[in-house]
Amino acid sequence: MNSNNKVKLFLVDDDALFLKLLEIDFMESADFEIETFSTGELCISNLSKNPDVIVLDYHLDGIQKGVMNGLETLDQIKALNPRDPSYSIIFPR
């Protein structure tokens, strides 16, 4: 967990409406520090912020063609942090 004791949560989904609804739902449920991303590439470029949990869309190909899907993003995250999987990754249905 980060220094202010809030769980740092990354939400990654290419559906802007669903992403906003998910963010609102998490904000109403607990006191999270939330960042949202519309592509796996944006999520990966921000991993230095050390999220505690990543909620990752399985597909990620609705808006931009040629971007990584959820599994490719997960593979990249694992490749960048092979020894320190200090966060959880969830694929919402």
TrEMBL record:
<dbReference type="InterPro" id="IPR001789">
    <property type="entry name" value="Sig_transdc_resp-reg_receiver"/>
</dbReference>
<dbReference type="GO" id="GO:0000160">
    <property type="term" value="P:phosphorelay signal transduction system"/>
</dbReference>
<keyword id="KW-0597">Phosphoprotein</keyword>
<feature type="domain" description="Response regulatory">
    <location>
        <begin position="8"/>
        <end position="93"/>
    </location>
</feature>
<dbReference type="Pfam" id="PF00072">
    <property type="entry name" value="Response_reg"/>
</dbReference>
<protein>
    <submittedName>
        <fullName>Response regulator</fullName>
    </submittedName>
</protein>
<dbReference type="InterPro" id="IPR011006">
    <property type="entry name" value="CheY-like_superfamily"/>
</dbReference>
<feature type="modified residue" description="4-aspartylphosphate">
    <location>
        <position position="57"/>
    </location>
</feature>
